[in-house]
């Protein structure tokens, strides 16, 4: 099934565009990344064709440090296209409507973080989202809706699934290319070994998907927060929160049964880290064998060098390698050994590879690798691995109705 694209959109209209600009935030500063670069292509095309463009996007989640305004995103987006990008600190209230009313052909306006609107987040059916005041108010201001946010298309949120039910809806260029690439990849068959490197912070997303990929993937190599939860299930005292970070315990509550049953039924397909890295008292990197950890007293921020040495030959023997999520907090060079080591092993190997994730794909350029050393680099994380299972993404599905 296909959707309408920008080729089907009549010139000069007022368009409401959903991008995924969800980015890493370090000390309050939004970090530029390839999501801006890729979405700039869609926005530039709309500007060149004299559309009046308003952009919706989200950043972080309420209660987390990365839940910030989109004002910096507007500036970064502007630096990727050749024309001004305005920002209004409002999602669909009077200020937003007045700024939208002032748009002229070729103008771009970024609206405030959609997740600051109460109706955006709860996961509900598209039909319910279409009835929200948020959707009902904004839809009257525009002639068409464009969804370019493939990487958020696994979420049934108002800005993603509500508008297509009540407006003419189109796929942007990123939506089109990511959908085509990931669908083709999901249909690929491999004769040899298929390996999936699973890490990152969104353990709930990856563990759900792992349970659906156990026939397609021969070897899961674990790291990141997800890997620590598997180590906890295997009897090691890691994968617990030791401060207010709230990265582990809630995800453990949600997933412990699934993890335990995966370990029980598929132990031979799951490879766990043998050592982990942490920050020592002098601010350096220290490593500890998993077997020597009696109690969690520090935050483990990377897998250790021994683990990279165990994972690399498995990668070298693979016909296909999929990566979702970083093996450590690679943004800090001290904790990049796992992520950079595994990506380098993939780049050096003649296998088919896909690296996905808004954050994870950033590690490629940070550590001196080139995108063309990999089969496909997706700016989608959760959406791409869900697509690998052959499942429809709700945000894509409503565009195809
Ligand atoms: N042990 C760890 N402790 C803290 N953070 C970690 C650890 N391991 C990995 N990370 C962080 O995980 C992040 C990447 O994982 P995340 O789950 O956000 O995936 P992603 O690649 O960005 O995919 P998505 O697009 O779904 O967000 C990195 O920014 C990295 O710093
Ligand atoms: O970064 C992502 O994977 C998407 O923007 C979805 O964000 P979320 O996991 O916070 O819903």
From TrEMBL:
Tell me which domain of life the UniProt entry assigns to the organism this sequence originates from: Archaea
Give a Gene Ontology cellular component term annotated to this protein: cytosol
Q: Name one GO biological process term.
A: glycolytic process
Q: Which residues bind ATP?
A: 331, 357-360
**Which ranges does the record mark as transmembrane?**
none
The listed locations are: Cytoplasm
Q: E.C. number, please?
A: 2.7.2.3
Q: Which Gene3D superfamilies match?
A: Phosphoglycerate kinase, N-terminal domain (3.40.50.1260)
Q: What InterPro entries does this protein's entry cite?
A: Phosphoglycerate_kinase, Phosphoglycerate_kinase_CS, Phosphoglycerate_kinase_N, Phosphoglycerate_kinase_sf
Q: Which residues are listed for substrate binding in this entry?
A: 20-22, 35, 58-61, 115, 155
Q: Which reaction does it catalyse?
A: (2R)-3-phosphoglycerate + ATP = (2R)-3-phospho-glyceroyl phosphate + ADP
> What is the uppermost EC class here?
transferase
Question: Which first-to-last residue range defines the signal peptide?
Answer: none
| Record: residues binding (2R)-3-phosphoglycerate | 35, 115, 155
Keyword terms of this UniProt record: ATP-binding, Cytoplasm, Glycolysis, Kinase, Nucleotide-binding, Transferase
Which is one GO molecular function term here?
ATP binding
Q: In which pathway does it act?
A: Carbohydrate degradation; glycolysis; pyruvate from D-glyceraldehyde 3-phosphate: step 2/5
Q: What does the record note on quaternary structure?
A: Monomer.
Recorded family membership: Belongs to the phosphoglycerate kinase family.
Its name, as the record gives it, is Phosphoglycerate kinase
Q: What is the lineage of its organism?
A: Archaea, Methanobacteriati, Methanobacteriota, Stenosarchaea group, Halobacteria
Corresponding gene?
A: pgk
